[in-house]
Amino acid sequence: MLLKANRLRELALGPVLMLLSLASAGAAAAGDKVNQVNMAPGATEIGQSIYDLHMLIFWICVIIGALVFGVMFYSIYYHRKSRGVTPSTFHESTKVEIAWTVVPFLILIGMAVPATSTLLDIYDFDDAEMDVLITGYQWKWKYEYLDENGENVSFFSNLRTPQGEIYNTAEKGEHYLLEVDEPLVIPVDTKVRFLVTANDVIHSWWVPELAVKKDAIPGFINETWTKASVEGIYRGQCAELCGKDHGFMPVVVNVVSKDEYAGWLETKKAEAAEIRELMAQTFTLDELMTRGKAVYERNCLACHGANGEGGVGTAIAGSAIAMGDVSGHLEIGINGVPGSAMQAFGGQINDVEMAAVITYQRNAFGNNMGDLVQPIDVYNHKKG
Fold first, then answer.
1. Domain range 45-122, CATH class
2. Regarding the domain with residue range 282-383, which homologous superfamily does it belong to in the CATH classification?
3. Which residue positions in the chain have pLDDT lower than 70?
4. pTM surpassing 0.85?
5. Exposed, middle or buried by CB within 10 Å (0-12, 13-18, 19+), for 204?
6. Kind of pairing between the strands at 184-187 and 212-216
7. Helix axis angle, 375-383 relative to 351-363, nearest 10°?
8. How many angstroms separate the first and last alpha carbons of the chain?
9. Which of these, 203, 213, 155, 146, lies nearest to 181 by C-alpha position?
10. CA distances from 13 to 8, 38, 59, 83, 281 (A)
11. What is the DSSP letter of 143?
């Protein structure tokens, strides 16, 4: 009988001891990063509230599990047949029925109160100090800072991870696939409301440490908000499967001091004013080629190849488009090709960049057409 009891205890405790040993080994291997196996509070008050709610529910579940399994194992051990215990024959108990109805009800009420309070905070968009419109594209993000005076600042945020790392010809960096050329910048201790939408397919803007995850749906504008209390760089990703390059549209948010943000915003407004001035200028072939090469590498290289050889997209080198009529080339660059991977870039890059990249494509990769496309040509083509 004693051997059977010991065997039963070993069977019951075996899985528990195994889990504890695995948890200890994981914690030792993680060092200071033990939180990697759990949620992290992040850098916002609402993130801390979500974390506290998570831990509250977790410990309630732990206590319930310990009590239920404790009673179960106690009953199995002390009321086993080998001890000569005779099972009860009662059919029902009104007291037990009331107890296992009332107790779970009280537990659920105890969980619902803090959960409801946290949900109300999550969906409280009032008193936002600034608004940012976020638009998802395949495969990049557009950020537009909305200004009550109409002086909006907008830019695209593209993946900056080198092609060598992506195609395993170079060693991968610390932030592989989590680097961008233009991060979103927001001030610390400021409630920022995000208006989230998409231009093509469904995306999802997700930054865990800022407690933000919201779907970007074409034709709809979803709202969310954050208020970061700690300066730093926070990284996230698109959390919705949006196409073959879904993993190539990271999110990077720089939380800076209010003074630093004000300076950054003024710089961005100055850059926008400079672009407006450039729109009226006429550029030389060398100027257009230099600017166009940078635009091509940022927006076109992944599909059309480093040497215009093609790949996902058609080849630029020797193509009928690049060596054909300029207006046809502009039409494809501005409006894209419906039903294909060729996006409409007319709203993604400005007229100066469009003029430069079209000029570059028509004169690089051995095309040598000698054509110059000026910003005014792009503007006139858009106007029809």
1. mainly alpha
2. Cytochrome c-like domain (1.10.760.10)
3. 1-36, 384
4. no
5. buried
6. unpaired
7. 110
8. 94
9. 155
10. 9, 24, 21, 21, 79
11. E
